[in-house]
Amino acid sequence: MVTTNVIYRVFHISVSGSKGTCFTIDVDRRQYLVTSRHLVERFEGSGRIRIYHEKQWKDLDVDLVGHCTGEVDVSVLAAKLQLSPPFELEPTSAGLAYGQEVYFLGFPYGMAEHVGDLNRDFPMPFIKKAIVSCILFKDNDVQVVLLDGHNNPGFSGAPVVFAEPNRRNYKVASVICGFRATEEPIFEDGRATPFVYKSNTGIVVSYGIKHAVDLIKGNPIGYEMRR
What we know:
The protein has 3 helices and 16 strands. The chain is mainly β. It is globular. The protein has helices spanning 4-7, 37-40, 210-218, and strands at residues 10-15, 18-27, 30-35, 46-53, 56-67, 75-79, 90-91, 101-106, 113-114, 123-124, 126-138, 142-148, 159-162, 171-188, 191-208, 223-224. The chain has a single domain, classed as Thrombin, subunit H. A 6-stranded antiparallel barrel has the order 1-2-3-6-5-4. Strand 2 and strand 3 form a beta hairpin. It starts with a helix and ends with a strand.
């Protein structure tokens, strides 16, 4: 069961017409928005995104904390207000194990459920389950967490959360950026045509939350939390 300390932190966003997911983390008593870089990569300095609230899109002014470079598809923004309660959700992959179950939360194809006050008039995200298939450590300290699950468009920027065995306190381990696709031939009457389609392999690609924390440590401009 995914608890409110996770659910309350997940938001549906729209940036230049592209829709996806973001979530909040708290570092040194400041709150930040984490999402996929490909959703916000045009941001420099300050700007505006849209967030879904009370069944409508609303403008949200944000400052850019930073974009990761290279293959790491992670960016961090700072809103000018506190978006979620300061419920504990540690941003770390410490304790994450091969083969363990994880969850990721977001808004596939823009779908969501509206539950009014139960989620402060924000839409309830979809929750999907996966298992950790592989954790890769690449050059330049890049951490990639590959999951066995089924990702859909709209989950970009979603948090991957887990709880250590016999514990219920969730942590956020990584950020969803997409899925591994492969081209498959299209057949007609048993014969291959010149056409192909992209097939979802079920390998979900995410990048370690450490990359977001590194950006924050280098530019700690998040909204100062009220206790």
